[in-house]
Design a protein that fits this description.
The protein is of the alpha/beta class. It has a single domain, classed as Rossmann fold (3-Layer(aba) Sandwich). Helices cover 38% and strands 22% of the residues. The strands form two sheets. The protein has an eight-stranded mixed beta sheet with strand order 1-2-4-3-5-6-9-10, sandwiched between helices. It is globular. It starts with a strand and ends with a helix.
Length: 296
């Protein structure tokens, strides 16, 4: 069962979906998982897909649109503030502790793509997050630097001017993440994102495929996995496709996190395959259900 909910995060109201198991009875408290969406995505895409599958397995699951994005509040629209996004996870956990359906001592988090950096970052210091998992995890600034180091640093250099323009009443300068069209010369990683976000496969009007340029100076200060070892002794599970361009993020984070961390690889899957392809999502969900079942 899915219900529309809202909760506060640093003065902004976030819009969410609460997914509950069909066999939940009045007065019962279940373990719960907060599920975060990818960068520039919205809850209605892969986050809801995973939440629904977790609810089918008996867990309560909460998805939400990050502040400044989707149906949630915050200006400018499209701001990708990594510290706010980490706080969104913390406030989502706080919200779940108030729900009658949830055991407040058994709450986990699941981050997908960019949220796979924000959720572990938040969990490093929020010990209410008893089990931490990611799917196709990426450290967003690390991903941007890797794709175009000079281009990203130029955006960082322009971020202050973009702030001045906004202060003077000018429009918010946006950075598109995808081209308008693809062809045979398009890099495979770009083409697979395009196929997900810009086609009927998963395109959504609130998933704008761009971020506010002035996000760059905040992103450049952020390192998702620098202190990932602080999650221990709580467990960390990172799921990635064997063919994913982002696989090194999960490999590196698990190596830093220590013996309570696990890397689960879905053979043959790319980064975006794990968003919705049944042959990739199936093994990922099965491992997640076992992981949260064991640790929540």
């Amino acid at each position: 069962m899915q219900a529309d909910v809202t909760f506060p995060s640093n003065g902004k109201t976030l819009a969410g979906h609460l997914w509950t198991p069909g066999d939940l009875v009045a007065g019962e408290r279940r373990p719960a998982v907060v599920v975060g969406h990818p960068t520039t995505g919205v809850k209605e895409q892969t986050a809801d897909l995973y939440a629904r599958r977790l609810a089918d397995a008996g867990l309560v699951a909460l998805t939400f649109d990050a502040a400044y994005q989707g149906e949630s509040e915050g200006l400018p629209r499209g701001l990708e503030d990594p510290f706010q996004r980490a706080d969104d996870f913390r406030h989502a956990v706080s919200y779940l502790t108030t729900r009658a359906e949830v055991d407040p001592g058994r709450i986990g988090v699941l981050g997908i793509c960019g949220s796979g950096g924000y959720a572990p970052y938040a969990a490093q210091t929020d010990h209410r997050m008893k089990a931490v998992a990611t799917v196709s995890a990426a450290d967003v600034p690390g991903f941007f630097r890797g794709a175009d180091p000079a281009g990203f640093q130029e955006l960082v250099a322009q971020a202050g001017q973009a702030r001045s323009e906004e202060a003077a009443g000018g429009p918010v300068r946006m950075v598109p993440l995808l081209p308008d069209t693809v062809d045979a010369s398009t890099p495979a990683a770009v083409a697979e994102f395009y196929d997900y976000y810009r086609t009927p496969r998963a395109g959504h009007p609130r998933s704008i495929g761009a971020y506010a340029l002035r996000s760059a100076d905040q992103l450049d200060q952020f390192d998702a996995y620098a202190d990932v070892h602080k999650i221990a002794p709580r467990p960390l599970l990172m799921i990635a496709g064997s063919e994913a361009v982002t696989l090194p993020f999960s490999q590196g984070a698990v190596a830093k996190a220590g013996p309570t961390a696990e890397l689960f690889t879905v053979e043959g899957a790319t980064h975006v395959d794990l968003y919705d392809r049944p042959e990739a999502v199936g093994p990922a969900v099965a491992r997640l259900v076992g992981f949260f079942g064991d640790h929540l």
